[in-house]
Design goal:
The protein is mostly helical. It is about 80% helix and about 0% strand. The chain is built from nine helices and no strands.
Length: about 220
């Protein structure tokens, strides 16, 4: 077995960190967009009647039972056929956000289901509209129970974002392939990339937990 030689890879660490920044941007943006869409889906499932409720359920069923990679491929190739030209980054962002929305809607719906009826009655007694009740009372209270599940899915998205390299996005994995091709040290660069993914995952989920505590403290 050839001895590991990290020096050529470590010399290109700033290049890899640039890819890590793209990974962070892609993960955070797609999670945030997915969470907004998921909130709408969760409310549709909770408040909708007939077709609206079935539509919300059908979306989650379809998206959670098909591979995320297939969904991104569909966006990447189908949008140009419809005359909508988007960059590889945008294609992956849209695909990840739409996929995340389905899973996050399940989490939000479960969290809302655990909110005691007393909170619904209190919001109504205060004269809040349904939109105000969800934003000011129901979602903040549900966050206390669903935050760990949201953090877990965010972590999954960080690691899953590595598929962006398949579409030519210069994320951490994409740049790791570039470094491996120029240094012929593919094992070493993948070990370094793996360590960077671990650092990103721990740091971002830690920031997520800190933000949650600050939100709960301010509530």
């Amino acid at each position: 077995m050839t001895a590991l030689h990290f020096q050529p890879v470590l010399q290109r660490l700033p290049f890899l960190l640039g890819g890590a920044a793209t990974t962070v941007l892609l993960s955070v943006a797609s999670f945030a967009a997915g969470l907004v869409l998921a909130a709408g889906l969760a409310v549709l499932r909770a408040e909708g009647r007939g077709a609206g409720r079935r539509l919300g359920m059908a979306y989650s069923t379809i998206m959670t039972n098909t591979p995320q990679l297939s969904q991104i491929f569909a966006i990447f190739y189908c949008l140009p056929l419809l005359g909508v030209m988007v960059s590889p980054f945008a294609s992956v962002f849209i695909g990840m956000a739409l996929n995340a929305a389905a899973y996050l809607a399940d989490i939000l719906a479960a969290g809302l289901g655990r909110v005691p009826p007393l909170y619904h009655d209190a919001a109504a007694a205060l004269g809040l509209t349904r939109r105000q009740a969800y934003l000011r009372v129901l979602f903040p209270h549900a966050l206390q129970t669903m935050a760990p599940a949201l953090a877990n899915h965010f972590q999954i998205m960080i690691l899953g974002s590595s598929m962006a390299s398949i579409f030519g996005v210069e994320d951490l994995t994409g740049r790791a392939y570039d470094v491996g091709a120029t240094t012929f040290r593919i094992l070493e660069v993948m070990l370094v990339a793996g360590a960077l993914y671990a650092l990103l995952s721990v740091a971002l989920t830690g920031a997520f937990a800190l933000g949650r505590r600050m939100f709960e403290g301010a509530a």
